[in-house]
Structures are given as C-alpha cells and as structure tokens.
Specification:
Elements (H helix, E strand, L loop, with lengths): L1 E5 L3 E7 L2 E6 L2 E5 L6 E7 L4 E2 L1 H10 L1 H7 E5 L4 E7 L2 E6 L4 E5 L4 E7 L8 H4 L9 E6 L3 E7 L2 E6 L2 E6 L5 E7 L3 E11 L5 E12 L2 H7 L3 H17 L4 H6 L4 H15 L2 E12 L2 H43 L1 H18 L8 H7 L8
Antiparallel strand pairs: 1-4, 2-3, 2-5, 6-10, 7-10, 8-9, 8-11, 12-15, 13-14, 13-16, 17-18, 18-19
Helix pairs in contact: 1-2, 5-7, 8-9
Length: 368
C-alpha cells in the first residue's frame, strides 16, 4: 500500500508506472502498491509553480491534464515574458520557456519578442533591478560617452541614464569613455643630448577625448599609443640640442615638443589641454660642473658689483671734496657735523683754548 499526505500548502503529482495519472490536492491518500507501480511527487504551492525544465516536459506529454490544474505560460523561441503574481512582479522568463503556475494565484504576463526588440522598454527597467539572465545593464553617467556594439559592429551612441538590453540572440556590448580631462605622467625619461650628455626629464600632460569613435577604433590601446609617441617626441626634440641650449630654452621646450606630438593626438581624436616639462635632471658629475660654473659666474658678478660700488663711492668723495674746496661754508658745515659725531662718541673731552678752541681747533677740514 502507498499511503501519502498532501498538506494544504502543497500539491502532488501521482505517477503510475512512471506515467502521470493525477494531480493531488491537499488530503490523505491510500493506493494499492503491491508491485511498486505508484509514486508521487510533492510541490510547495508557496513557490508559485514548477520549474521551467520540468514544466516543459509535463506540458508536452500531458497537456490536457496540466491545463486543468495549472496556469500554463508557453513562450515562442523568440519570446520572453514578464510575470506578475497577485499583482506583484515575480520574474522574467527566458526565451522559449514553458512554466506551470498553480491556479491558486492570479497570474498575468506580458510577452516581448526579444529578437525584434533588443532594448528593454523603460516601463520594465525598474522591475529588473539586480542580475537577470541574458540581460545587459549599462549605466551611463553625465561625464561619460557610451557606444553600443551589436555583434561587434558599432550601432549607436547611448544617452545618459540606465539602459537594459536582451542578449538572447545577439552579442551586445557597450564601450564607455570618460569625457573628463586625464593626466599622463612620463617620469625618469632618459635622453642623450646633442653633446652626448645623458639627461633625465619628467613630463606631465593633460588631455581629453574629443572624438570618441576615432579614439576607440584608430588604436588598439590609445593610452599606450599616446604615451609612446610622447616619449618619441621628447627624444627627437631634446636629442638635437646641447645641454646649454636645453637649459637656456627650458621654458619653451614644452611648446616645441607639443608641436611634434599634436599630429598623433589628432589621429586618435585627442585634444591636449596642457603639457609641461617639470624637471630636467643632469647626472651627478655634470651637476657639479654646472654648479661650479654658476658659482664662479656669480662670484665674478659680485666682484664686479663691488668694484662698481667702490668706484661710485670714491667718485662721490672726490665730488664732495671739490665742492668743499670751492665753498668754505660747506666745509664749515662738514666740520660741525664731524664735531657733533665726536662729542656723541666720547665720554670725557678735555678742551684747551675755550669755546674758540672747540669750534675751530678740534676739527679742521680746510686745506692748510
């Protein structure tokens, strides 16, 4: 005997000799099973229905029996279906799926031909939060460009926002690029100047993409392409100059290098915002030599300035002397100034000859 109980929240499929013969509602059942011909399979009603693989097999073999006890959703090969159960969105069925839902629920569906309509309608976008099979999700920010490729062929540019696509029948991909200004650093670049001196330089460049399609399709690795050609431009330009020329024109080197580099930027759709040579580093021995040269130059310049100042001071003294010789009153004023300084710098002063001696004999600048 086969004795079984089906709970109120369950249904069961009864098989005899592996053939479905009945769908059991809740209750207690007894079947003669001397030969082991009977078996039953229990399903929880709380799961809404039976999984798609089993549903497809059951509906194909027992369509009339299944229709009596289940709501049947059978999709064409190019169709997917959005399923609502009791007014709430439940799931998105894959293309060509068959699924059985228990009749205890109010099941509604909306079919979509995903071969004719690859893009998910905006009314469904909010329903498909999270990960879904054969759904491509592309979220585009305001600072990004995004392009849609269908079977590796560029289709169109996508606008800012959220986009979802069915990928059941097509290879759909997206490529995103950042519109904002980017920075490229070339550090420790070793060069050989025209006079065979090894230099190192550091360069910073800021650029942005002006033509996104050209940027994606012209070079396999655009960033590496820019980096390499910037290196070549630096080598080609600085390598033709001596160390003295490099140091003398270091402020204009960036513009000259950029002129050589711009043709490669235009080729891949890039606009240069700025480019600067931050450092030019000499090897240790050359740095010492240049420091000595600069030190000697500055010392000679300081000596020259000192000589000029001494000459100017001597000339000023000579002019003063000439004026005092021709103008006794001016000479007398100078004497009084000197007398004032003397009296301020001594504590005790012995005077002979009275006031006249102080005024006329203590300081005398006139020619005898």
């Amino acid at each position: 005997m086969l004795i079984g109980t089906v709970k109120e929240s369950e249904k069961a499929l009864l098989y005899k000799n592996e053939k479905l013969v009945k769908v059991l509602e809740s209750g207690r059942y007894v079947f003669p099973n001397f030969t082991g011909a009977y078996r039953y399979e229990v399903f929880s009603v709380e799961h809404f229905g039976i999984d798609t693989k089993k549903s497809e097999l059951l509906y194909k073999k027992y369509p009339e029996l299944i229709k009596k006890h289940f709501e049947v959703v059978a999709l064409g090969e190019e169709e997917r279906a959005f399923i609502w159960i009791d007014g709430k969105f439940a799931e998105l069925l894959k293309a060509g799926a068959t699924k059985l839902y228990f009749k205890e629920y109010d099941v509604k569906m909306e079919k979509v031909n995903v071969k004719e309509e690859m893009r998910v309608s905006t009314k469904y976008v909010k329903l498909l939060e999270g990960s879904w099979e054969h759904i491509l999700r592309v979220n585009i920010s305001a600072h990004e460009w995004a392009y849609l490729y269908i079977d590796n062929v560029l289709d169109k540019r996508l606008e800012v926002g959220m986009h979802l696509f069915y990928t059941d029948f097509f290879d759909i991909k997206s490529s995103k690029l950042d519109k904002r200004v980017k920075e490229m650093e070339i550090t420790g670049q070793e060069l050989l100047s025209a006079d065979k001196v090894t230099l190192r330089c550091n360069v910073t460049m800021h650029y942005k993409i002006s033509d996104a399609v050209r940027y994606m399709e012209t070079a396999f690795a655009p960033h590496e392409y820019l980096y390499k050609h910037m290196q070549f431009a630096i080598r080609e330009h600085i390598g033709t100059k001596t160390v003295d020329e490099i140091l003398e024109h270091k402020n204009s080197l960036s513009e000259e290098i950029l002129e050589r580099f711009l043709v490669h930027c235009e080729k891949i759709g890039v606009t240069i915002e700025s480019m600067h040579i931050k450092d030019i580093i000499l090897p240790g021995e050359m740095r010492e030599i240049f420091n000595h040269v600069i030190e000697a130059s500055k010392r000679a310049e300081a000596n020259l300035i000192k000589r000029r100042e001494e000459t100017a001071a001597t000339r000023s003294l000579l002019n003063t002397a000439k004026l005092m010789k021709d103008n006794p009153t001016l000479a007398r004023l100078k004497e009084l100034e000197a007398l004032e300084k003397i009296t301020q710098s001594v504590e005790t002063l012995n005077v002979y000859g009275g006031l006249d001696g102080v005024m006329h004999n203590l300081v005398d600048l006139r020619e005898k």
